Structures are given as C-alpha cells and as structure tokens.
C-alpha cells in the first residue's frame, strides 16, 4: 500500500515506523505564528495578497458590477440617467423572446456537446488504433483535426457561410445538385435548417478539442489492461466499454464540462454565420447579451442576461466539481 | 529543499538586485515617451474611419486616392494626421464610438453613421466656425441632411460627406410601368415569378434591411417611429396598424412566391447583386450606390440601359418616402488646433469641393452638397439626376431618438422573422414590442 506523504506537514507521515528516512531530514519545527503575535512574517497573507488583488480587480469587481448593472435600466452611454429596477429580470421572465432564446440555446448546446463528444471520441479512437497498428499519417491526421480548433470562430462562420450559400454556386448546394437534388436548399434562411446548420458548424469546430482531450485520455490507459482484456478474450467492443471508457471517465467528464461551458459562451461563429437569424431562429444566449449591450445599447437588460448566462455556467461547473469529488471518493 | 544562503556579491559584480534595477530603468525608459505631454513632440490629430473609408480600403483606387491626398496634406500642414481604423461591423463600431464619446475618449476626428449621429452630436464639438475657413456653406447641404448635422439651428456638430437613398429598380423589358405601391408590386410580380423572375429586398437582421424595406413603407402611411415623448409610436393605434401592414406585405410577398425566402438572410442591399447580375430579378428595392456597382459587375455593362429607377413603393396611396443615409465627420477633441487640423484634412479629402467630388465619384455615393452636382470632377451616372430629385422630393433621415437603436434592432428581427416564415406579421410585431417594452 502506498504511503502518502505531505511535504508541507512538519510532522511527517502519520506512521512513525514507515521509515523512508524522512524523520532524519525533517525541517526543525518553528513556532506557529498567529496573526497577533507572529506578525506578517509567518502569515500566508503576504503570499496570497498579489493573487487576491488580481482576482479582486479582474474577476470579483466586474462580476459584482455586472450584477449591480443588471438591476438598472442603464444604457451603454456613460452619463445618461438610469434608475434602479428589477424590471430587467421581470421582463426576461415574462417576455416570450428570452424564453425562446433559452430554448434555442439549450438545443444548440445539447446537440453540439453530444456530437462533439461522440465524434471527438470516435476520431481519437481511430487515431489511437492507427497508431497502435503503426499506420502512417497519424501525425498528419492529428494536425489536420487540430487546425479546426486553431481557426477563430469568426473565420469558421465565414467559411461555413460560403459552404451554405443558397444558390447553385454554394459549395454544398452545388454538391447536392450533382446528386440530383434541387441545389437551392435554404441552409440559412429557413429557420429550422438554420439552427441545424449552425449546430453542424459548431460540432465541426468543437470536435477538435474534444478529440485532443479524448486522445490524451486514451493515452493514459495502461497497455497492460488491453493486454489483460485480450488474454481474457474480450472483444473490441467489450474492451471499449469495460476498459477504455471507464478509465477515461474523468477526462470525459472534464471534456463534457469544457464543451458545455464553451458552447454556452459561444457567439462569434453564430454572429458571423447567421447573426442570430433568420428572425431569432439561431439567437443563442451569448449572442443575445452581445446584441443587447452593443447593438441595442441596453446595458441593464444585457447585464441581466449575462448574469443568467453566468449562473448557468456556474451550475455546470458546480456539477462537475460534485461529480469529480464523488469519483475521487469512489477511487 | 533548503536554499543555500545568499552570498554577498563581490564588489563590482552583478547581483540580482542590480539586474532588477537595470530592468526597471529600461522599462521606465521604454514607457517614458508614452507619458510625455502631447505638446512635447510634433503634434498630430487622430483620424478614425471605417475600413472602406480609410487607407486600408479594400478598393485599391480608394486607398491610392487617400494615400495621395494624405501625402499632399502632410506637405502643406505642420500638423500630423494619425490614421485610426474602426471595425467593419459598423453597428458595433458606432456603439463603441458612442461609448468612447460619452466617456471623453473618442478620437479627435471620427467618422459617424448618420443614423446614430443624433446621439453622438451632444459630445461632438461645434464646427460651424471652421466651415467658413474651409469655404463651406451650410445652405449647400440638402435640407434633410442639414437637419442631421445641426444639433440646434446654427449649431453644426458634423460635416456630412456622403449620402445615399433607396429606390425601386425595375427591368425595363419586364416592367412597363413601375408599381406605385406594395400591392401593385406584388400583383405585377406574380406572372413574372412564374417566368423565373423574382422581386428582391433586404430582410436580414441589419440596419440596411429596415432602412430599405421597412421605414419608407411605414413612413409612407404618415406614421412616425417615435412619439413626442421619445417612446416607440407603433406600440398601439395607428402606428401599430401601419407597422403591421408593412410586415404583412412582406409576408404576402414571400408567401406568394414573388420574393424568395432567402432574402431573410440579406443583410445588405449588396447581397442582392449576384441574383441581379445572373438575370433572375425583375425588380428590387436597393440603394443608390448599387447602380454604379452593378453596371461594373455586368458583363456588357448595360445596367443603365436595361434598368429603370422609380420612387420607393408606398403602402397604399401615392405618398412616396425614401430613407436617406450617409456618413459625417465629427470632432471630439476640445483642442481647437487639433479640430482645425483634423477638419483641414477631412476637408481636403472628403468634404471640400474637390474632395467630395472625387470621393463620391470613387465610391458611387451621392454628394450631400448640392453644388457638387455641377462640379466637373464629380462623375455622374445616368441615374444621378433622378437620385438627386428623389432626395429633395422623398428623402427622409432616420430619427435620432435615444431608443432608435433598440427599435431598429427589434424590428430587424421582426422583419427577418416574417421573411423567413419564423413568425407571422402580427406575432413578429408583438414579439418586437415585447423585447422593447418588456
């Protein structure tokens, strides 16, 4: 059984007979300082202060300011009068538009994340399998997939808008016309098609990061386990579900959370691809925040939406922390 | 792990402290020029433009013109010009400029879209005293634009240097008499649609879409976007009915198949161009600048022969209204010397007689100053006299009310929703009001 040693613990391991010579190398015990008697020299505060100050300035203060602004009807223009009101939240709850935005956002996130994870895992398994068989082109494949991750969202939006062009000169429509279809599929102007088109583009974008994480996860699985599974006569499917996936569970959970948070916050690609339209068919929450603040100049309402977005993200991260804790306890 | 005790450095050697001091001094020297007062070196005025109007213009002719002008200006002016470029996303760029202006951080001279100028004007400096020096007369501007430039009569806060307006373009061989109103346009378009010719208008989520497709039709009914209290005037009563009838006409045009649904994705008027060049369009609502562009795009360059121009279709009755637009220069610094230097530059390149004539010719814009139409340097196309007449007879600027951006954005969504079939006219309008009023 492995003994855990905490180097910060001046008493060393709890078991005095554990040997390891640690007791001999123990740092002479210094009196524990209290804030009152030992001054700042022995306190941890001077070490935490710089980081604490940075966090206060760049994280805590902006968050508090956003929360404060969310209870006002302030505009983006400095100096214009505004009043404190809870109307911003009331209008979000009672209005149909915000409900619709949430519906679109959750659908966008759900489908994007599910397919990003599945495709990312599939590509990672393929790359790993090819690597084990010593096939050529594995590095090139990884590099190509990574390219999608490196391209900025706005550029991805522009690329896909060219693909989706709704005339015969559009790449996809031209391809469809060669297959005997009309060649005039309204990828972006039909409300239902538009959401699907945006989701497909986002899956393409996010699969790369998902693949990187899954690939890293697969590499952590010891070869001995595969060997043992092979000796036990496990089929490839059984190996996948009994060995690979359980071993990858922590990284899959992290992948799920990262993909979910990133997709909730995603707006750049949607902005350049559809701008949220037609109508509000592809209006996701992050884009609505941007529109409210920077196009409609409604800082108060935009801040209220931002608070909702932040709450959703905090909830997702909170679930992740709980899940991770439970997994660690089980281990 | 224990760190070895620090040893005293031999005298004359480099210690970590010495290195830190040297690094600090180097950093201070690097940052020092940034802290110098603005009067300590050659003085310059910041000049901010959107990309197509800047030295980074994608059109090489425009970029070459501006480079030539700026080089000439630098030779004769002791004051430097520091070029700044804002975003291509003009809505975001204007929102940022408004924020900067309200915080006193706007560039010395900046380009402002006419639709937002009313909100920015309180932060802009008066420029009328410089107009005489530059040889400019306020009366020379079209009245509709003059009202945009003035905060109050005589208090000029911006110099408009380009203008445009919206018209109905129609194919002469397909449409004998251009329609006067929307109903007539839809009826005339039905048989043409069966022959494969469509009608186009921008109905995406953009300022251009509402300015071309919605506002003229709405105004043609005698309705206003805002009441005297600055609140939207289409929430109830006559305004509501007028706005609904506009959206219904869009719904009907798309439903009848005379307008393709993909117009819901047309953010700019220029998005219509590929269809027009391909010969699939019988009529379209567009901007005055499109004529020259389309003539250049067409193989045989016969746009002016094949196409005609008519007033924007009204919504019932014969009261035509067209929305005008354009760009202004405004000064935000309170340094009079900088204002003078900045206005000298924009005067020479964009606003003065030669500057406006050449810039408007290059970009296909309509000069906002009436005298420029008689200037030899201004290259007119066959439609220019018609556009000029339309500005005078039907031209109307967008309101500068505080809530205009909010109203425009929500109705852009409504227009796009109706055109795409996401919502019916009434539903889209009610949702827009929900977003506005909450």
TrEMBL record, chain B:
<dbReference type="InterPro" id="IPR006059">
    <property type="entry name" value="SBP"/>
</dbReference>
<dbReference type="InterPro" id="IPR050490">
    <property type="entry name" value="Bact_solute-bd_prot1"/>
</dbReference>
<dbReference type="Pfam" id="PF13416">
    <property type="entry name" value="SBP_bac_8"/>
</dbReference>
<keyword id="KW-0813">Transport</keyword>
<comment type="similarity">
    <text>Belongs to the bacterial solute-binding protein 1 family.</text>
</comment>
<dbReference type="InterPro" id="IPR006311">
    <property type="entry name" value="TAT_signal"/>
</dbReference>
<protein>
    <recommendedName>
        <fullName>ABC transporter substrate-binding protein</fullName>
    </recommendedName>
</protein>
<keyword id="KW-0732">Signal</keyword>
């Amino acid at each position: 059984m492995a003994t855990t040693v905490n180097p910060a613990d001046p008493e060393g391991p709890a078991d005095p007979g554990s040997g390891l010579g640690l007791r001999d190398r123990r740092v002479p015990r210094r009196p524990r300082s209290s804030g009152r008697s030992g001054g700042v020299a022995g306190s941890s505060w001077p070490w935490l202060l710089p980081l604490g100050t940075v966090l206060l300035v760049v994280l805590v203060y902006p968050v508090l300011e956003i929360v404060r602004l969310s209870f006002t009807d302030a505009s983006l223009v400095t100096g214009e009068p505004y009043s404190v009101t809870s109307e911003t939240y009331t209008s979000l709850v009672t209005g149909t538009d915000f409900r619709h935005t949430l519906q679109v956002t959750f659908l966008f996130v759900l489908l994007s994340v599910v397919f990003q994870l599945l495709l990312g895992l599939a590509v990672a398994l393929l790359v790993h399998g090819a690597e084990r068989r010593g096939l050529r082109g594995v590095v090139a494949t990884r590099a190509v997939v990574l390219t999608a991750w490196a391209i900025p969202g706005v550029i991805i939006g522009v690329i896909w808008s060219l693909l989706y062009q709704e005339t015969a000169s559009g790449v996809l429509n031209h391809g469809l016309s060669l297959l005997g279809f009309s060649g005039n599929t309204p990828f972006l102007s039909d409300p239902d098609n538009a959401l699907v088109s945006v989701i497909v583009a986002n899956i393409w974008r996010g699969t790369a990061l998902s693949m990187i994480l899954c690939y890293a996860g697969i590499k952590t699985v010891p070869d001995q386990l595969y060997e043992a599974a092979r000796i036990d006569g496990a089929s490839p499917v059984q190996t996948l579900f009994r060995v690979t996936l359980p071993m990858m569970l922590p990284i899959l959970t992290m992948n799920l959370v990262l993909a979910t948070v990133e997709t909730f916050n995603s707006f750049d690609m949607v902005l350049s691809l559809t701008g949220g339209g037609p109508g509000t068919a592809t209006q996701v929450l992050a884009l609505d925040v941007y529109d409210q603040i920077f196009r409609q100049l409604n800082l108060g309402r935009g801040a209220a939406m931002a608070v909702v977005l932040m709450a959703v993200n905090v909830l997702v991260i909170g679930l992740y922390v709980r899940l991770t804790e439970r997994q660690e306890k089980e281990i | 792990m224990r760190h070895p005790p620090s040893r005293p450095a031999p005298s004359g050697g480099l210690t970590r402290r010495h290195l830190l001091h040297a690094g600090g001094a180097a950093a201070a020297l690097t940052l020092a020029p940034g802290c110098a007062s603005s009067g300590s070196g050659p003085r310059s005025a910041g000049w901010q433009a959107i990309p197509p109007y800047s030295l980074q213009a994608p059109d090489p002719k425009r970029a070459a013109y501006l480079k030539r002008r700026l080089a000439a200006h630098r030779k004769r002016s002791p004051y430097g010009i520091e070029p700044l470029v804002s975003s291509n996303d003009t809505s975001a760029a204007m929102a940022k400029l408004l924020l900067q202006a309200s915080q006193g951080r706007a560039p010395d001279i900046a380009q402002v879209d006419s639709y937002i100028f009313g909100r920015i004007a309180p932060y802009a400096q008066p420029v009328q005293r410089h107009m005489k020096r530059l040889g400019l007369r306020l009366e020379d501007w079209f009245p509709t634009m003059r009202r945009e430039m003035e905060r109050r009569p005589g208090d000029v806060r911006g110099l408009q240097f380009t203008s445009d307006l919206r018209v109905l373009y129609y194919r002469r061989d397909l449409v004998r008499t251009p329609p006067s109103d929307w109903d007539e346009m839809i009826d005339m378009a039905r048989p043409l649609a069966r022959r494969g010719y469509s009608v186009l208008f921008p109905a995406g989520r953009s300022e251009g879409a509402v300015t071309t497709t919605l506002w003229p039709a709405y105004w043609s009914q005698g309705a206003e976007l805002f009441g005297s209290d600055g609140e939207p005037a289409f929430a109830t009563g006559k305004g509501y009915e007028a706005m609904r009838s506009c959206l219904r006409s869009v719904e009907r045009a798309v439903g009848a198949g005379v307008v393709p649904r993909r117009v819901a994705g047309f953010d700019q008027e220029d998005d219509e161009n590929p269809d027009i060049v391909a010969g699939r369009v019988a009529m379209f609502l567009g901007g005055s600048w499109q004529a020259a562009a389309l003539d250049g795009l067409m193989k045989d360059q016969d746009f002016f022969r094949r196409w005609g121009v008519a007033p924007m279709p009204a919504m019932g009755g014969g009261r035509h209204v067209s929305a005008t637009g354009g760009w202004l220069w405004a000064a935000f610094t309170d340094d009079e010397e900088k204002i003078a230097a900045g206005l000298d530059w924009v005067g020479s390149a964009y606003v003065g007689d030669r500057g406006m004539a050449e810039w408007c010719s290059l970009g296909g814009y309509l000069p906002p100053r009436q005298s420029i139409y008689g200037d030899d340097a201004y290259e007119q196309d066959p439609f220019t006299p018609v556009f000029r007449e339309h500005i005078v007879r039907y031209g109307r600027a967008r309101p500068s009310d505080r809530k205009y951006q909010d109203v425009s954005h929500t109705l852009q969504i409504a227009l796009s929703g109706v055109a795409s079939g996401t919502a019916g006219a009434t539903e889209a309008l009610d949702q827009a009001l929900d977003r506005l009023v909450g």
